[in-house]
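User: Please predict structures.

Assistant: First:
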Amino acid sequence: MRLLHTSDWHLGQSLHNFERHYEHQRFLDWLLDTIVAERADALLIAGDIFDNANPSSASQKQLYRFLQRAKERMPHLNLVVVGGNHDSPGRLEAPGPLLEAHGTRVIGAVQRHADGAIDLEALVLPLTGADGAVQAWCLAVPFLRPGDVPRKAADAETADSAADPYLAGIALLYKQALDLALTKRQPGQAIVAMGHCHMVDGQMSADSERRIVIGGTEMLPAGIFDPAIAYAALGHLHLAQAVGKQHHIRYCGSPIPLSFAEVGYQHQVLRIDLDGDAVREIAPIAIPRAVQLLRVPAKPALIGQVLEELAALDVPDAPTEEQPFLEVRVRLDAPEPGLRARIEAALDGKPVRLAKIETSSAARGSVLDAEVMTLDRLEQLKPDDIFRQLYQQRFGNEAPPDQLSAFAELMLP
């Protein structure tokens, strides 16, 4: 059986006020072609389908149109979607009955029976091959909030999480779902798991990933996945990576760079080939980048060098939606009035979209005087004292008299 693993589409995301609809559509069109070319049996989408809990109608239309076209082009395809921390569980599941009628299973949140017990049957899904026979079982677990985990986790058998009820609850939920899957599977059928979480040792992108901290817990140990699970398809981290030394526990990463911090990522989907109940091969499939993200200069530089590099920037002409996004990186050693105007003048006529001007200074990494960081000392400081120290922190020298005079005038009642 062949699976494709993708996640973190973030449909509707904007990059510094530039919308990304064109890039997402190019990815979805490519993914449709890839599903057919790879003759995939299942597509696992591991959360953060949308960028926020209230997606636009255009973003929702993109998703549902993709799901429809995927089933049209590959009728036997299993489509499994789980919610992420950016997704609204209710909104994601709202069209569930209609989607399920066309072979798409959407799990936005953990459901409970009237007696409060978790509906495990809704989380354990059969995956069928082209002949319609069950070839694997999927533990389709969405992003778990405290109310989603078992209310009594005392029997969780994960030593790493025993001291934390939330971790113990997650471990117990996976164990209960796995136990149910083991009662269902026949010889030669694999078990795969899905999840949307931050695993221990996972590398994150600070500019575009929302930290998940619940009850002081942020990262989950790999031990929550039992050895009986052949493959774990994870979402949340935007850099494709294996978890620790567990080659079968993988993040596929986001399909497009969601911030300038991700320009160096190799964006991909993962192809997983199952041989009976085991994984035969895991291989990345590189996603073409529809729009480039440029950082000029490569490292922050003084404004003179920056303007020279911008003037020399040679970018082919292209329609607006295909023009590169640009981050300009300036190192300041003093205030630079009219900085944006000078940068825009250097870019005049060039087919790029100025998304961000990133400023830094050699002194910015320093911290304020330790006295400022204490509440009792802060109460004694006057506004101009704080202004002097912040200026020193940012620019590495004393505030000039005209700046102090302007600040004093600003503070007049």
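Second:
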Amino acid sequence: MRTRSRRIARWPLAPLACGLLLLSGCADFDGTPTAQDWKPAPELTPQAGPQPELPGADGSTPGSRGPSTPPTSVPPPQGCKDFDEAVIGTCMDTVAAVTALPGGQNPAALAGERKSGRVFQVSAGAEKQQYAELAVDATGGGGLTGLTLSPSFAEDQLVFAYVTTPSDNRVVRFAKGQEPKPVLTGIPRGGSGNQGSLTTDGNGALLVATGNAGNPAAAADPNSLAGKVLRIDTSGQPAQGNPNPSSAVLASGLTAPGGLCKSPDGSRLWVTDRAADKDLLYRVTAGQPLTSPAWTWPDKPGVAGCVDGTSLIMVATSTAGNVQNLPVAADGSISGKPSATLDGENGRTYGRLAGMEQISAELAVAGTVNKDGGQPVSSDDRVVLIVIQPSAAIPGKD
């Protein structure tokens, strides 16, 4: 029997080219981060690019094994059964948040429904299982919008979530089948800008991207938790090594963040954001305001989760329904126009995508939100696997 890695390598995925206990109230911040003179990013509309061919399970590259064969068609889903091998979870509602689970022969993840607050465990070849249910208020774009495993998940089995309640936005923690407990509360909520995102920094801290709750002034206010990238420990306190030791703020200036991601070596941190007139990707520098994006999308594809695949940043979009792939130079700068994959032009599309997280050097996992304004199929909303390739593998890339 073929291994799963070989089956993944044969998918006609049109894959991507490359990837806290209790604190009540608001924190006090002692100062506003100093500005840095960054060049503004070019305002260019992303160009659709060709879909790359997958490398073989043996590591071979396109063209090294003779002519490529046309993608095999996949039958449409029948009810909740999806015949696409990339799909590992089906029949959920607006999967806005995902986080990869470690270990096991098959890729597995936790998937969070934005509107219901339900969290499911999904994996290839198995039925989804409810893992937890969090009380959420999904108005104003909020609800359950972020998930990440504890930095010490192997020992404590804890999961952290970013949720909206009737009174605030907050970070909570929970274990399987248990009631959530607050970690960081008092993040402002408003009529919009309530979504947030979570990841870990690789050094035992949590990274939290918060929306501005519909108040742009809050994003610049050092005494507000809104519109920020925060760095906290697992009890909700400012993490050791922050620019201001008494403040959780790492960077300021967000509107409605869609995703946080870091490079495999932890040297780069990125956050996607949706402003009133454009979508943006920022490279986060500790202690510096988010004023000069690394890239902007004037056509507003709805940037969401992201993955740093070393030579390329992959950004899921929840409006355009594709993945934007931006090549990254050795110095960490964006070195060219983005190309679109999983867009249906030269391969498959899964529709609107939201949360995305890297599983390994070769795979990422993403959730779909087609039931939130898209065109759902019978098996939506879904959790899908996405293959990561180096940017050099994309035809037409320098």
